[in-house]
Amino acid sequence: MRILAAMSGGVDSAVAAARVVAAGHDVVGVHLALSSAPGTLRTGSRGCCSKEDAGDARRAADVLGIPFYVWDFADRFKEDVIDDFVESYAAGQTPNPCLRCNEKIKFSALADRAVALGFDAVATGHYAQLEDGVLRRAVDADKDQSYVLAVLTAEQLSRAMFPVGDTPKEQIRAEAEARGLAVANKPDSHDICFIPSGDTRAFLGARIGVRPGAVVDADSGQVLAEHEGVHGFTIGQRKGLGISGPGPDGRPRYVTAIEPETGTVLVGGAERLQVLSISADRAVWTSGTAPTGPIEGVVQVRAHGGIAPAVVEAVGTGMQVTLREPLTGVAAGQAVVVYRPDPAGDIVVGSATITATGSVATTEPLGDR
Prior knowledge:
The active site is at residues 101, 193. 25% of the residues lie in helices and 30% in strands. It is of the alpha/beta class and 369 residues long. It has three domains: 2-185, Rossmann fold; 210-265, no CATH class; 274-359, Translation factors (Elongation Factor Tu (Ef-tu), domain 3). It has a six-stranded antiparallel beta barrel. Strand 13 and strand 14 (305-315) form a beta hairpin. Helix 1 (11-22) runs parallel beside helix 2, helix 1 crosses helix 7 (169-178) and helix 3 (74-90) packs antiparallel against helix 4. The chain starts with a strand and ends in a 10-residue tail after the last strand.
């Protein structure tokens, strides 16, 4: 097979490329330039797609003896990932840009170009298992990335390869060293790749500007503080609320709802964060077909955590989730991913974008946020 290996400059994608080369495939390496003005160096484990990363990817390709190219996707990345991220926060939502990048860039724009050039599949360093169209959690639970891949359609999965998903990270680093790859001990990248400073509020503020609103007590309706924009808040946030001290009951207060139309940020006790139902839209079913009846499974609402047993039903273009156990900090804009438990690795059934939740405290839908 002709395989296009997406090489970020990190250890995982380097070993993934090495494995497809070792398997006898015809492999070409490609690094995606996602920034119109990439930095020369990364800041520790923050950021990616720097000139340093491109150089590391090229050196890995040289060791593997494969052709290597840099493809410019900066404009597409800005439009489909960065702009979407900013617009979602401006609307009071909490998006995950890694999902959007996988959906729109790596397995859409990149894969489409790969197919047009005669490649059969795109191999990446994601930690997930994929066989015969079945997407599973990775063997290394701490590194599992199936959550951010659950947005992929059956067609997109049919032309994807995840060569490192069956191996713990520690062994991947050892393999990289044994293969003579200089990135064997390179730190993993964390946080949002296009915000290397880690200051999301400042990044959003520079693009959205000041949009004044009020921080309001959800129980009494009392205005507790003023703020400069709902983009500075997420559901479940406790610090940086601009209020003095805990609530009247002496307990901490958290962001419990965001109303972008009025600029209102509601705060209250932790009990208001617990939800038992989730409504979501833009469902993607891994099999390519929506289920015809209820699914007993497990759902996950964050990349690292937020997992609970649930019953899931397809409803129109989305899904309705009834949780068997309450989850906290569930926000509109996040993805809810449905898994079917399996000893070989939980199987991804589908995903959708959260639009509303039902609260344990009120048992009433909190509505779109």
